[in-house]
Amino acid sequence: MKKKVLIGSRERSRSPEAMEILNAQGYELIVNPHDRALTENELLEMIKGVEGMIAGSEIVTAAVIAAGAPTLKVIAKQGVGYNTINVDAAKEHGVAVTITPGANSKSVADLALGLMMAIARQIPQMDSSIRKGEWYRHTGVELRGKVLGIIGMGNIGGEVAKRAYGFGMKIIAYDVYPRQEFIDNYGVTYLSLDEVFSEADFISLHAPAMLETAGMVNMDRLRKMKKTSYIINTARGELIVEDDLYKALKEGIIAGAALDVFAQEPPQNSPLMELKNVVFTSHAGAYTNEAIVGAGVMAAEEIVRVLSGSEAKYSVVK
Ligand SMILES: NC(=O)c1ccc[n+]([C@@H]2O[C@H](COP(=O)([O-])OP(=O)(O)OC[C@H]3O[C@@H](n4cnc5c(N)ncnc54)[C@H](O)[C@@H]3O)[C@@H](O)[C@H]2O)c1
Ligand SMILES: O=C(O)CC[C@@H](O)C(=O)O
User: Fold this and answer.
1) CATH of domain 105-280
2) What's the pTM?
């Protein structure tokens, strides 16, 4: 009997290269027919009898993993933020969970810099004002000479530092594991979390969503920031207390924000939408042709490794 593999990732994040790798193994592919994340009910149906799964942004709950057991052997996240997968349940059922480190870091870093420039020069605001027939020149600020604070200096944080260094920014960072290569290559100075918040002109978040980071950007930290400073979040919505950010933006405690990720996606009736000093993108950091192919291929290779009896290369189940 053919081994079944569920492709959970939505249509536009699927790469033909990844599908070819799986097809070449003779697997039967069960494919998410939608251009959206599968719901829990859909997953509960589709996971039955499946041995491997490529996961996109859908939430893989304990119930879904239990419904896939004991056939399910591996869930390969096409991406790096595995807070969407119940890893404890996977461990309990002997299911490997893998990620694709580095595959989308350049794309996310490009977007973080794009957002930084968008808020520094008010690019979206000018675009919408011209469309209304106006001709208003916003005065912005240069990135050169400004202090960039990076929270979470891993693969994406490192790529952001590389780009910001090219722009002549001074880079400070907070990470639980400082890396010498970033000090040597981009002159990064590691500081405490509170020092980064008080010294930065721009803060870019790149830490994973976990107990220790949930709500790390709250009113206490926002009040430590300069009134002229900006915050950019391309990591996870859980890192920011959105009500506090709204208040800080509305009351001029900070100058602006750019958000690719939200506590609830898509955001529903968020007061942030009323504000002019915020720029939004739709969790699109990893949505480039290059990252989709890179991460898709890495995820497919993990499925093949595990289903052919080898060890996964990038397992997150300890
Ligand atoms: N917007 C998007 O589409 C998108 C795409 C990819 C990743 N992401 C998010 O970005 C995050 C980072 O991705 P990455 O590839 O750089 O991962 P990574 O593992 O390479 O880097 C994460 C860094 O955060 C550090 N860290 C861990 N705990 C911390 C803490 N309590 N405080 C500060 N730093 C801490 C780690 O030491 C590591 O250096 C992912 O977890 C994911 O949630 C978002
Ligand atoms: O939800 C997605 O498809 C993007 C995944 C991305 O956020 C990641 O963590 O790598």
Assistant:
1) 3.40.50.720
2) 0.97
